[in-house]
Design goal:
The chain is an alpha/beta fold. 42% of the residues lie in helices and 14% in strands. The protein has helices spanning 2-26, 30-39, 42-51, 64-73, 79-88, 92-97, 103-112, 119-129, 133-142, 144-147, 158-167, 177-185, 189-204, 225-228, 294-304, 316-327, 363-368, 413-418, 441-445, 452-463, 469-484, and strands at residues 231-232, 235-236, 242-246, 249-253, 282-288, 307-312, 337-347, 350-353, 361-362, 383-391, 431-439, 493-499. The strands form three sheets. Strands 5, 6, 7, 8, 9, 10, 11 and 12 form an eight-stranded mixed sheet that branches. A two-stranded antiparallel ribbon has the order 1-2.
Length: 510
């Protein structure tokens, strides 16, 4: 009997030691928690508290450090779970620096495993990120009929409002009708539609949230991998252009839906427009390295209400410097759009400026400088690029390598603090990319001739400024097609259009 008791005692000790070892390995180190808290700003901390309200419902920690430490003690903060939280607050830099993980790895994990945070809370944080101060103020005012006066201060955030609504049982994972109604009242139909999609997904799927069986499920949000994986050339699979190839180029029929939506909007919801009311409408940057088109384009965009900045005969380094400088301009926050016109010699995927033998700038890198994560003042606003590239063959230049271009950097804490809070839109959203290519020999035969493509563009903007941009660009493409039908192959222009516009765009409503 003694040997049996001893055996049970030894066995129990082994089990206890294994459990203790497992708990030790599972707990997040204090150093990691401290590093995370130090790196988060106040908005990110508020978001993290909100995301964890369900998993830490019975405690009210005074700060993020204590919150994460509490979760760690309970065995609810493994490295992958902390990675999920950092992913949800969009701190991909901390994923890499502290946890040695990249965004793709986290997305893969989220696709295959249950989530720490409920999809309802992810949805609320995304809606909060996409609301400006006036939207939140309007929502707080509308909720007075249900919450009573003085329940929440006017200067509180959207997440503060949601917490108060939850306390009154006016908002819950399966109770979003009131919020949906108020979003409609402030004309945020895009966010109303996001809630409708959440409801549909919650009805059709089982929960993927491992800490709250009652939470409704949503496979992944618009900024999760299911969204990112469907984007190709800035368009979802369901919303790509219908392309008709011909010997004279490509004609495209635009699809009217938004890149944020995976399906067509209900027909009773009116089509949204980008606001184009600021004065000026925005900056129009013209870089003309040929010298035949800048004057007409300058007059055209000035008449539309843009503040035109134009530069002639720039070298590659000067083009890079100019683009960086304009991308970093804080004035964009006061304007409704941005236009860039670039005329240059180049390769099939790059421009060379006036440098005949210098490395070229990749066109994709130019677009990259103005994407949402590098140019935050233009998030949610249309960014229009019209590029005339006279293509040189490999034999016409000595150096065919491409110069990699980094985006504008935030060099100090003060400039970072001035950056606007990012919206919940894809970083490649709201681009209009019109590229026209012609053979460089056209310039050699007619050195003083302006680009046919840019001539038609200028003409149509003068005459049809009140038409949607996509509609008149189709006509522009038809005009270029007509030109091509009457000239030799060396004199033809080839126009391609890629866009990720989420709303109808009319450059002038006056």
């Amino acid at each position: 009997m003694k040997s049996v008791a001893a055996w049970f005692s030894v066995d129990w000790i082994c089990v206890f030691l294994l459990q203790l070892l497992e708990m030790t390995l599972y707990r997040m180190s204090a150093e990691v928690i401290h590093q995370v808290e130090e790196a988060l700003d106040e908005d990110e901390k508020e978001m993290l508290f909100f995301l964890c309200r369900d998993v830490a419902a019975d405690v009210v920690p005074p700060n993020v450090r204590d919150l994460l430490d509490s979760l760690s003690e309970r065995g609810k903060l493994s490295a992958t779970e902390l990675a999920e939280l950092l992913y949800r607050v969009r701190r991909f830099d901390l994923l890499k620096r502290i946890l040695k993980m990249d965004k793709t790895a986290v997305e893969t994990h989220l696709l295959k495993n249950p989530h720490l945070v409920s999809d309802y809370r992810v949805l609320m944080t995304e809606i909060g990120e996409d609301l400006d101060k006036s939207d939140v103020s309007s929502l707080i005012f509308l909720m007075r009929d249900f919450m009573g006066r003085g329940r929440i201060a006017k200067d509180k955030s959207f997440l503060d409002l949601v917490i108060e609504l939850e306390k009154l049982n006016l908002v819950a994972p399966d109770q979003l009708d009131l919020l949906e109604k108020c979003l409609k009242s402030i004309h945020r139909l895009d966010l109303k539609t996001k809630i409708q999609k959440y409801k549909q997904s919650a009805q059709g799927e089982g929960t993927s949230y491992k800490n709250s069986p009652q939470a409704s499920a949503l496979s992944l949000s618009s900024k999760d991998p299911s969204f990112n994986l469907t984007i190709q050339n800035g368009r979802s699979k369901e919303q790509r252009f219908v392309e008709h190839k011909s010997t004279h180029g490509i004609q495209r029929e635009p699809v009217k839906t938004s890149i944020q939506e995976s399906g067509a909007l209900p027909q009773h919801i009116p089509e949204e427009r980008y606001p184009m009311q600021s004065k000026p409408l925005g900056i129009c940057l013209i870089i003309d390295c040929i010298g035949n088109d800048s004057e007409a384009l300058r007059d055209t965009f000035a008449s539309l209400g843009y503040k035109v900045q134009y530069f002639l005969y720039l070298k590659v380094k000067e083009i890079i410097h100019t683009l960086h400088h304009v991308a970093c301009m804080p004035q964009h926050q006061d304007y409704d759009s941005f236009v860039c016109i670039l005329v240059s010699r180049g390769g099939s995927q790059s421009v060379f400026g006036v440098d005949q033998t210098h490395s070229g700038i990749p066109l994709q890198q130019i677009k990259r400088m103005f994407m949402g994560d590098l140019c935050p003042f233009l998030i949610g606003k249309p960014k229009l690029f019209f590029i005339q590239n006279y293509v040189m063959s490999e034999g016409q230049r000595e150096d065919s390598s491409l110069l990699e271009v980094d985006g504008p950097a935030v060099n100090n804490v003060e400039s970072r603090a001035q950056q606007p809070k990012p919206y919940t839109v894809h970083r490649e959203a709201d681009f209009f990319w019109s590229l026209c290519m012609a053979d460089v020999s056209l310039l050699e035969r007619s050195p003083n001739s302006a680009s046919v493509y840019l001539q038609y563009l200028s003409q149509k903007l003068w005459q049809e400024r009140k038409r949607p941009l996509l509609d008149f660009h189709l006509d522009l493409n038809s005009n270029v097609y007509g030109w091509n039908s009457g000239v030799s192959a060396e004199d033809k222009y080839y126009v391609s259009l890629q866009h990720t516009l989420r709303k109808k765009l009319i450059l002038s409503c006056t």
